[in-house]
């Protein structure tokens, strides 16, 4: 092998080794976290669960199902609402950016206990 060929091979090998070191030392991209899915069941005159802990600033998907009749689901602080139809799953994408308790309620009259059909999100760090 000539001096030029050896020199080129050594340089190429050194360059590859250097790139491998740089790749190993470079910061990794954070893994994309899956969106949290929270299932909420509605039934005369309650939501299950009715107290839900969520992290501030983390996007979530609410999956809403009615076990009996048409209900409403309303989060006044976010001005987000949906009807919940029996036999279907309604999906709402939300994100809470303020700490504290955020109320939700049924805004479709469903009987004498309708006023008690509510719950809250507890937003924490």
Task: Look at the structure and name the CATH superfamily.
Answer: Cupredoxins -  blue copper proteins
Query: How many structural domains can be distinguished in the coordinates?
Result: 1
Low-confidence segments: none
Gyration radius over CA:
27 Å
Apparent shape: elongated
> What is the straight-line distance between the termini?
64 Å
What portion of residues is helical? Answer: 10-25%
Rounded average pLDDT: 87
The CATH architecture category equals Sandwich
Reported by name, the CATH topology is Immunoglobulin-like
CATH class: Mainly Beta
Name the structural class: alpha/beta
State which percent range the strand residues make up: 35-45%
Number of E strands: 9
Q: Report the total helices.
A: 1
String of helices and strands? HEEEEEEEEE
For the largest beta-sheet, the strand count, sense and barrel status come to: 4 strands, mixed
Order of strands across the main sheet: 2-1-4-7
Subunit structure: Homodimer.
Protein name: Nitrous-oxide reductase
Function: Nitrous-oxide reductase is part of a bacterial respiratory system which is activated under anaerobic conditions in the presence of nitrate or nitrous oxide.
GO molecular function: copper ion binding; cytochrome-c oxidase activity; nitrous-oxide reductase activity
């Amino acid at each position: 092998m000539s001096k030029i060929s050896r020199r080129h091979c050594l340089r190429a090998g050194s360059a590859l080794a250097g790139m491998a070191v740089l790749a190993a030392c470079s910061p990794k991209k954070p893994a994309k976290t899956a969106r949290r899915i929270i299932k909420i069941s509605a039934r005369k005159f309650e939501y299950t669960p009715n107290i839900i802990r969520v992290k501030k600033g983390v996007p979530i998907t609410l999956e809403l199902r009615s076990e009996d009749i048409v209900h409403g689901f309303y989060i006044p602080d976010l001005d987000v609402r949906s009807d919940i139809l029996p036999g279907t799953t309604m999906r709402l994408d939300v994100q809470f950016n303020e700490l504290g308790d955020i109320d939700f309620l049924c805004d479709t009259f469903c009987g004498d206990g309708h006023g008690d059909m509510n719950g809250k999100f507890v937003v924490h760090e």
